[in-house]
Amino acid sequence: AASVLDTMVADQIDTCKLRVASATATDAVVTTVNAATVTTNNVALGKDHIKAIVDVMKERNIPAYEGDDYFCIAWPTTFRTLKNNLETISQYVETGFQMIRNGETGRYEGVRFVEQTYRAKGGSATGLGTPAGAWTNSKSDWAVFLGADTVAEAVAIPEEIRGKIPTDYGRARGIAWYYLGGAGLVHTTAAESRVVMWDSAA
Fold this sequence. Notes:
Blueprint: H1 2-13, E1 18-21, E2 30-32, H2 47-59, E3 70-74, H3 80-90, H4 94-102, E4 107-108, E5 111-115, E6 143-146, E7 151-163, E8 175-185, E9 195-198
């Protein structure tokens, strides 16, 4: 059930209008507002990209997801360069060194980083998490930055376990889960978008 519901939400996030990308710049991003980008990525996601993306989000008045923080979700390898950057920054600070020892991705520029391995790598023009759409230069992969009020769920019948009516004189039995509902982006226009995707044209 969890994987089906995660997919339902991820499919909605994939329709977000705001996309940011970088061809080779390590400290700037190109922003588009039509759910696509014409920029083909050829650089790993790094700390200076995070700064540029946070600037985009703040200047668009996107409220923080929780407290004062935005959230970013991506694959561990998408965060690798960023994690290396953060280790260099944190290694001489006691709390930072403890984070390194714990393997935490951490928080930077008001963004908390969350690793996931459920939604496939790839995407670009074919959609978030489409393995056939792996990025051309293989330098990075999708990352989703979230502000508050991103995806809403409408539930008609919440998740439940249902038992099969026994057949074959009681020998054929079964259980299954059942749910009736849906999800959608709360803000579907670029001007009000609460989701920003690190993306690539190919």
